[in-house]
Amino acid sequence: MPSQAIYLDYAATTPVRSEVLEEMQQFFAEIYGNPSSIHRAGRQASVLLERSRETLAALLNARPGEIIFTSGGTESDNAAVRGIALARRASTGANRLIVSAIEHKAVLETAEDLRDRFGFQLDILPVDGEGQVNIDDVASALGDGQNVALVSVMYANNEIGTIEPIAEIGSLCRSLGVPFHTDAVQAGGKLPLDVEALQVDALSLGAHKFYGPKGVGLLYLRSGTPFWPQMTGGGQERGRRAGTENVPLIAAMAKALELAEQERVDEGRRLRGLRDHLIGALLESIDGVHLTGAREKRLPNHVSIVVEGAEAEGMLIALDLAGIAASSGSACASGAHRPSHVLEAIGLPPHLATGALRFSLGRSTTAADIDYVQKLLPEIVQRVRT
Length: 386
Known about the structure:
Layout: E1 6-7, H1 18-30, H2 40-60, E2 67-70, H3 73-92, E3 96-100, H4 105-118, E4 121-125, H5 135-142, E5 148-152, H6 166-176, E6 180-183, H7 195-198, E7 202-206, E8 217-221, H8 247-285, E9 289-291, E10 302-307, H9 312-321, E11 324-325, H10 341-345, H11 350-353, E12 356-360, H12 367-385
Parallel strand pairs: 1-11, 3-4, 3-5, 5-6, 6-7
Antiparallel strand pairs: 2-8, 7-8, 9-10, 10-12
């Protein structure tokens, strides 16, 4: 057993890095005013808030006024899907939503709610066996775009790691004048976030996926995109999201993304090497193991497999007892007693889906950690199977 626990669940959440924690604690203690207040303490908080907004906008190649601060990725997804869809229908009569079958539930259930309670038509795009959306399917669903209120396709999937052709979809939507949102929560700090290159009108991020604190995120909303606020009661965030901004957490998010972007290319290369080594070793050493998601168009830190004849719960408990933290897929769906909708969408039969494991790597992951996992997992699988 390793001298300290091996954490391989970075797709669920990441630890707050020391530089970010220091920044956050400083602002909790020293800059505590309400940024809407006009006195000195309020003005200090307002300056810090806008400085953080400028930093994040620059990292996304956006304008500061296009950044809306939220409580995290789930709120950002909800705000984008509901806010754009309802505003578009009110202004143009467009009544159709197009989302992929493997969206995070924050998008999928929001779209279903708009269908069930508000009468929207919902088109769900299929994916192939690797979880990839086909651009021809997007074009077919869009048609001439006249009745489409919104398209939402995630940048990278949290369960199987597959990266979607966001720029191509964005280009297609833009040519038809249809707003396009992407849930980029898993992409933060790992993939390029240039909203101009991606050709998106809305993009969601959550800070705790790139070594920032939980409880804070952002929604990029391109200027001119129709939008109805989902939280009302105050004029914060230019009237688009009511509620006093959590300035220390916002400053910490800006610091975290700034550091992640500085390191993204080199750290991505390092993690990709560890990822590929682990994938190769597990496929070779354990019979009945299958990779889920794309082999190449995949998050650099993401390994997802299914193991024939072995229940995920038993494997996860054994891994935990051996000092390894992993997961069976989406942390938000842990405890669910039905197969993952993502694994169903890629055509995985239920008897295989119950053996899903996800190892997601991060800044503390070493080659020795990977060696330990690849040595231990075959023994665990054998025990669970028997």
